[in-house]
């Protein structure tokens, strides 16, 4: 840290937030996150309002007749397949994909979560 950095004041520009629109999935990756080293799907997407790719790793979906937002956690069943009824399975089915790799190239809907962050829409 430099002395100059310690003297920087508060700006008056609001953070730019992206509006929910259709995004194109460019790449998919399973990443290990958090203290528990859990696996999560992280999707790189092209948003029409942004030059660079954005990453999304959560989905708003209907679970037991209620909308909820969940991370795209990579949980497998005893047959080493994506757990049926999970947020990830729902997201795949909603977008006509049978595997994670099938998502590449698809145009999918987005929404916002309770904090205003972009997430996928699967309902």
Describe the secondary-structure layout.
Blueprint: H1 3-6, E1 23-33, E2 38-46, E3 54-56, E4 58-63, E5 66-71, H2 87-94, E6 107-108, E7 110-112, E8 118-122
Parallel strand pairs: 4-8
Antiparallel strand pairs: 1-2, 1-6, 2-3, 4-5, 7-8
Largest sheet: 4 strands, antiparallel
Q: Could you say how many structural domains there are in total?
A: 1
Q: Roughly how many Å is the radius of gyration? A: 17 Å
Secondary structure category: mainly beta
- Mean pLDDT across residues: 94
Report on the structure:
- There is one protein chain.
- This protein has one domain.
- It is 10% helix and 37% strand.
- It has two helices and eight strands.
- The protein has helices spanning 3-6, 87-94; strands at 23-33, 38-46, 54-56, 58-63, 66-71, 107-108, 110-112, 118-122.
- The strands form two sheets. A four-stranded antiparallel sheet has the order 3-2-1-6, with no helix packed on it.
- A hairpin with a 7-residue loop joins strand 2 (38-46) and strand 3 (54-56).
- It starts with a helix and ends with a strand.
- The model has no long low-confidence stretch (mean pLDDT 94).
């Amino acid at each position: 840290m430099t002395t100059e950095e310690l003297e920087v004041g508060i700006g008056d520009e609001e953070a730019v937030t992206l509006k929910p629109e259709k995004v194109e999935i460019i790449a998919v990756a399973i990443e290990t996150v958090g203290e528990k080293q859990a696996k999560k799907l992280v999707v790189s997407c092209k948003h029409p309002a942004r030059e660079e790719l954005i990453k999304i790793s959560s989905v708003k979906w209907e679970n037991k007749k209620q909308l909820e937002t969940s991370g795209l956690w990579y949980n497998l069943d005893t047959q080493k397949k994506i757990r049926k009824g999970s947020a990830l399975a729902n997201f795949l089915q909603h977008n006509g994909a049978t595997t994670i790799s099938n998502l590449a190239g698809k145009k999918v809907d987005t929404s916002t979560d309770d904090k205003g962050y972009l997430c996928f829409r699967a309902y």
